[in-house]
User: What shape does this take?
Amino acid sequence: MKIRAGIAIAAIIFSATASAQHSSQPVAFGLKGGLNVYNVNNEDGEKYDSKLGFHAGALAHIHLASQLALQPEVVYSSQGAKYNFGSTEAKLKLGYVNVPVMVQYMFDNGFRIQAGPQVGFLINAKTEVGNVETDVKDQLKTVDFGVGAGIAYVDPRSGFGVDARYNLGLSDINDDNSNSKSTNRGFQVGVFYLFHK
Assistant: This one.
């Protein structure tokens, strides 16, 4: 499934890039980074608290039409949640390489609205109780599917912009036979820079 998801995303990016290169619309590349506020939702009703993290990576902004663009990204994302382990606060610390593909509608004033699918690849997973960390990567699935939606603004003259997005996980991250489904979800707020904008 990981290979198929990667092939599908690569095909979307390749076809969009090829289409843009054969048109008068430009392709811009950039960097982005910012703050995460993530949590894990459990169907069994167990409540977790949000955990702060960060994201950083690269993007391509591909114009499909005068006000329509495709924005694939490759971003490392620090996620997880906080919860109580007895009388001690514990943390679930997750690290993903996320590959969102955002479809953007661009207004003339620099604002954009965006939405699209995302696939995430689990890089590391640990629980932290006090000063003790335990690797729990083998208890979680290595691929996570979700969708994202948000808004952005870019200054056309400088190429600098700001971005706010909500990501909703759709697939169960647990890699066991339990009947309880757990999904990632969280907010991202950050800045980005487009080269040669």
Residues 164 and 189 are 4 Å apart (CA to CA). The mean pLDDT is 88. The helical segments are 2-21. Residues 2-21 form the longest helix (20 residues).
